[in-house]
Amino acid sequence: MSTRSVVTTTLVLATLGFVSPVYAQETAAATSNAGIVIQWSIITAGFALAIAAGLGALGQGKAVAAAVEAIARNPSASNDIRANLLLGLVLIESLVIYVLLISLIVLFLTPFGAPKVA
Predict the structure, then answer these.
(1) What are the pLDDT digits (tens) for 3-15?
(2) What is the pLDDT of residues 28-45, one digit of tens each?
(3) CB-based contact 60:91 (threshold 8 Å)
(4) Nearest to 109 by CA among 37, 50, 25, 47
(5) Contact of 70 with 81, CB cutoff 8 Å
(6) Which residue of 4, 54, 63, 113 is most buried, as measured by CB atoms within 10 A?
(7) Is the dihedral of CA 42, 47, 48, 52 positive or negative?
(8) What is the set of domains in the chain, with CATH numbers?
């Protein structure tokens, strides 16, 4: 066995050992922390959407810049470049829409079966 696989296995087992007490908590603790879970769900959804939208916009900007540069180099290939650009922009935007969908699920569904806080 190599040293790398031994170290990896040891780290995985140590991580599982540290995480296992989390599952031993009482159910009453989960209901008392329902408000905190909901607050962190809102914060997490907001950050996820902000990061996805920002990085999606950067990716779209880079794609458009590369397409414009490619059309400037070879104007006869503009139709093929434009078709590939639109396909790429649609795929980038779909990733942001998926994050929006997940964020809306996190915001509007009661997390982990916690009771609704009035």
Answers:
(1) 888 888 888 878 8
(2) 555 567 677 778 888 888
(3) no
(4) 37
(5) yes
(6) 63
(7) positive
(8) 34-118 (1.20.20.10)
The pLDDT assigned to 63 comes to 93
- CA 80 vs CA 70, 71, 75, 90, 91: distances in Å: 11, 10, 10, 16, 17
- What is the chain's length? 118
Note the pTM of the prediction, 2 decimals.
Answer: 0.60
Q: Number of helices and strands (H, E) in the chain?
A: 4, 0
Give the pair of three-digit tokens for residue 70. Answer: 């490619």
DSSP structure string for 48-89: HHHHHHHHHHHHHHHHHHHHHHHHHH-GGGHHHHHHHHHHHH
Ranges of the chain with pLDDT below 50:
none
Neighbours of 41 (CB within 10 A): 20
pLDDT at 68 (0 to 100): 94
Q: Which two tokens stand for residue 91?
A: 């795929």
